[in-house]
Model the fold of this input.
Amino acid sequence: MKANLNDIKQWNEDLEVLDALGRIRWAWEKFGTGLVTSTSFGLQSAVMIHLVRQVSHEIPIIFVDTGYLFPGTYQYAFTLQQELGFTASIYSAAKSPAFQETQFGKLWEQGPAEMAKYNLINKKEPMDRALKEWGATSWLAGLRRGQSSTRKSLPFIENQKGITKIYPILDWDDRKTYQYLPQNTLPYHPLEGVGYDSLGDWHSTKKISEVDSVDDARHGGHGRECGLHVDLPEGLDFNV
Done:
């Protein structure tokens, strides 16, 4: 189903009055097998996975693995899959981390343009490939307005390059998100409580105490978004 601007406007009004489960049920009824969800197996990832699994076990759960995640994140991935009874579909870059470092060096140390290149290779391209292989028309993601300045004005549903994206927990605050875990007997990430606001790759994620703004805690301080949830600059061609 290809949504136009009028559809998006009406659907945002519809989703505004629903709770998170209601939004996911709405999306499943609207898009069916064209619907996927993604997970980073980060600090709050159990919330979206648990919500999605309550609605349907048929919605694919896509995990983009950069090969540079914290060991605790991989541990958490195994724990959640075992406890919640699912198998994530894993996508990674076409070139291994070792190959990339040999060819390009450590991109995350080379400034914002090379960080964008890193994100294109390791996150954007694998996710785009996953969406294509699953025939996805819509994508559930766990973005929240309170997470960063770039997310404060997000709508509940939007179009991004032909994919309809839905954010079921967009209006949840930190307290509600974290309380959901013990309320539903879900395990915490092994790195919960040690100073991170969110987790990505070990080489470009910092603790809140190490930065001036939460937006600087990810992607080497070059912004909160990695390219999965915002379009990369036009004309970006890195011959990956």
Q: What stands out?
A: The beta strands are 35-39, 61-64, 89-91, 138-140, 157-160, 163-166. The first helix runs from residue 5 to 16. The mean pLDDT is 89. The CA atoms of residues 79 and 152 lie 31 Å apart.
